[in-house]
Amino acid sequence: YMALFVLEQDQFGGGQLEIIQLSDILQSLSIQTREKLSNEKFRINIPLEFRKSNELDHINAPILLDHDKIRYRSDILSEQNHEELNELNLTIQQVKKYQPELNKYTMIILNNQKYLHGRTKILDHRRHLLRVRFNRTCPYDVHSIYEKEKLFPEYLTFSNDFYDYLQNQHESLQEILSLIVQQYDQPTSLGEEIRQTFRFNSKIDQIIKQLNVYRPNYQMNSYRPDLMFSQGNLFKINGKYSFQPKICEINARFPFNGYFLSAALCSTDCHNRYSRKSSRIIETMIQASKFDLTKRMFIVKSKEHGYDIHLFQQYWTKKSSEQCLIIHPNDLKIENNQLINQQTNFIIEQFILELHQDEILNLSNEVLEYFIRNNEINYINDLRTIFILHDKRLFSLLSNQPFLYSLLNNNQQETISQIIPKTFVINKLSNYLKDSIVHNKQDWCIKPNSGGKGENITIGVDVTSDEWSKQLLDSTHEQWIVQEYFGYVQYKSMNLCGMLLCFNKHCFNMGAIRMAPNKIVNISRGGHYILPFVHQQYIHCMNDKSILTKEKLHEQLLELKTTDKYWNQSVYLSSSGGSGGKRLFFATDIQENLRQRQILVNMMLDKDIISDRDICLNLFQYGNIYRSFEIFNDFCSMANCTTLPMGADASNEDILEMVEYFKPNVLMGSPYRLMQLALYLEKQEKNDIKFEKIYFACESLDKIKQDYFKRIFHCSIYIGFYGSAETGVYACQSSKYSSTKIYLYPKELVQIEIVNSKIIVTNLIRKRNQLVRFDSGDLGRIVSTNENSKYGLIEVFCSERLILIGDDDLSKSHIEETMKQTDVTEWQLIIDYVSSRKTNQILLLFRYVKSDTNMSNETLENILKSYLQKFFANQLTNLSEELTLQFEPIEFDQLVRNKTSNKLLKIIDRRF
């Protein structure tokens, strides 16, 4: 399908859309022409805008498909003087054309294979139509093979460091594996060590040696290292489950297993870094294998049921004009120096091997010789890959440091040794090492050297000492391996196993992750699978893992607009209130934003902070992309409690009317707006207004306001909420911590660090625009709790330093502490330079609203000066050249407020 959306129509009558039904064309074409257009292949050039590869600029295909669909554009056909094409073009000119009227902002959707469309000459250069090409459906049904119910709906998130780490590991691994295969037949000590490690029988040995002679340009084709998420501290899953990856084995027999699954499921999210590579897995493998879509494809298989190979068959059937046939290995024969399927007598030019090693060895010598010597035949996997890379004895070489040293430089050796578990072939164990393994079975497992699906694996920790010794000393197990065993990192009580998808030099990184409650992780044995996530392009963090400041974040937000064309699509936009400096706009995924709020509400319900019995009066600010009002409405809806959404701009008279009518028990708003309401109620002598709880945010609620609210609202429980536009609201107080600075936060939502008393926040649930190690601008400490608790406690002290004079600094906490020494209703500090010419002299202007006290302005100001002195080593009178103090008594409505949030700006720094 395609769609045309009219942004601006041609005002002069040109650019008229014309549509022709294919059915009208077919009725007018001769039978002979229809047959030729259906069966004959034409060279069709691929328009530049639709090319996915520089290597593919055309296809050879019929014009008519299935006799009732068409693929036709006269300008991209190479053959112009063709009898059938001439008849088709003449028919197109003669049949009836439909001219739908498309006005501005209308859309038409067409089946591009059932209709031909064109337009008349454009007369108005302002005409603008948007053409939409719908994404094609996946050419195979992944859930026809893999049960949809086994797919977990969420992601496992990983860092970009982990993604890059696997890419680097693949580079080293690919080089080592290639060298091992190439060195196998060499008359060197290295070649001898490789041969002695594998000890293949004479038939396999000769196959590998002959392939190195007749096919010297070895291509590994498909190989899939399995990744075990073992216990360690190298990386994290979802920001909290620490792990170290280990490659425990390599799957190289069945070339597509896991690839189609990952290509289908990991390629659907444009914000997921895995999607970019996953979307090209299958096409890349087919192109790299040099398979010809215009020729028949064969799959040679017998006893293996298979998974993804059936998806390959679906794919080929839809992508190619030729068949994809499954044949039994016994049906292969050589005739006239050609490989033939003796059931159909079809010539086989390309095929997929889906055979076990013993099935390959049971092929006739004539067929095997043909595989080895005939370079015209095209197949995967290479037999060397199947016999060497799939053999677990390979790991005794990969974990052998002296061996690696002779293959690679020292840096690469160290790189690969980090991810490979120590492995030994049992018959090469020294007596000392064998004895150690017998007595430390908990650290080891025994595996057959070939095979797969976890068959016949013995894990030391799961068996008795007698059984372990029996397995290790069994004479039939001499060619098996003993490998280091590591405990799994679990997710939802399940063990995890990833797969590194590789093909030749291509690494598609990690595919779908398998999950199972058993130590042998296998979907065929009842396991599940889950998808990995790494943000595609943009994570708000520092590349060197240092702390992200608000200033740096602001730079990144501006850069994001130029690097990500989707930055403002499908997002929830939050605006900072402006108290931290420049106004910021932060984008989060809409669903992730709702999930964050739900997690916080779940905690509030769990801790009796809110209940479905509450009736909440919402007086928070809204408008101009400021979200406080909306946030608290959402909290109430998610908690299934009633909200009265009045907003900060509602008149006090209307608010009083709602209070008297609905009798709300929870009052919500900024301390400033609540103070306005309290002053009004006191003036109206309304002494019967009572609230059980007050929810506040945006500003702190000091002791003076708390006492005042207790008198006016008859309320003594004050629940503060904590967060920012960047992090979202992620913490709140409970009744237990009312009137303190201690907040509860869900550990599944955020990770809190304290670095030099700074509160550093990492949001754990965001996948789009992740926020990592963000400096919130406040100081605090972690309050010790039970490690197994779902919730953490953080005490918030104050914000950062405001001014620095010599060796002395003045922070927001110093100012707040100073202002508590006087009985003022509200205060505000303006920091500026004395003049634009004297930027070395700082002005501190204290503006204050006096309470009902008889204290004179002079006395009040002297108290403030005296208390400020304690924060300076030098006398304030001696700092007159650097610091000027001024005081200004004002009325409550003269306080400067942010125009967006209506938030009281306690400290206004005009120097920047």
Average pLDDT? 87
Distance between the termini: 55 Å
Q: What is the name of the CATH class of the largest domain?
A: Alpha Beta
CATH level-two architecture of the largest domain = 3-Layer(aba) Sandwich
Overall shape:
globular
What's the quaternary structure here? single chain
CA gyration radius, whole angstroms: 36 Å
Domains, number = 4
Give a written overview of the molecule:
- The chain is an alpha+beta fold and 912 residues long.
- The protein folds into four domains: 2-133, Double-stranded beta-helix (4-Layer Sandwich), CATH 3.60.130; 144-389, no CATH class; 550-798, 3-Layer(aba) Sandwich (Rossmann fold); 800-909, ANL, C-terminal domain (GMP Synthetase, Chain A, domain 3), CATH 3.30.300.
- It is built from 26 helices and 49 strands.
- The strands form 14 sheets. Strands 10, 11, 12, 24, 25, 26, 27 and 28 form an eight-stranded mixed β-sheet that branches.
- Strand 36 (718-724) and strand 37 form a beta hairpin.
- 33% of the residues are buried.
- Keywords: Oxidoreductase.
What is this structure, in a nutshell?
With 912 residues, this protein is an alpha+beta fold. The protein is 29% helix and 29% strand.
How do the helices and strands line up, and which of them pair or pack?
Layout: E1 2-8, E2 17-21, H1 22-28, H2 31-39, E3 42-45, E4 58-61, E5 64-65, E6 69-70, H3 83-94, E7 107-110, E8 115-119, E9 128-133, E10 151-157, H4 160-183, H5 189-198, H6 202-214, E11 222-237, E12 241-251, H7 259-265, H8 273-278, H9 281-288, E13 297-301, H10 308-319, E14 324-327, E15 332-335, E16 338-341, E17 346-347, E18 350-354, H11 357-361, H12 365-373, E19 378-380, H13 383-389, H14 394-398, H15 401-407, H16 410-417, E20 423-425, H17 431-439, E21 444-447, E22 458-459, H18 465-473, E23 481-484, E24 490-491, E25 494-503, E26 506-510, E27 513-516, E28 528-533, E29 539-540, H19 550-563, E30 571-575, E31 585-589, H20 590-606, E32 615-618, H21 628-638, E33 642-645, H22 652-662, E34 666-669, H23 671-683, E35 693-696, H24 703-713, E36 718-724, E37 728-732, E38 742-746, E39 750-755, E40 758-763, E41 770-771, E42 774-783, E43 791-799, E44 801-805, E45 808-811, H25 812-819, E46 824-835, E47 838-850, H26 857-868, E48 883-889, E49 907-909
Parallel strand pairs: 10-28, 13-14, 13-18, 18-19, 29-41, 32-33, 32-34, 34-35, 35-36, 46-49, 47-48
Antiparallel strand pairs: 1-7, 1-9, 2-8, 3-4, 5-6, 11-12, 11-25, 15-16, 16-17, 20-23, 21-22, 21-23, 24-25, 25-26, 25-27, 27-28, 30-31, 36-37, 38-43, 39-40, 40-42, 42-43, 44-45, 46-47
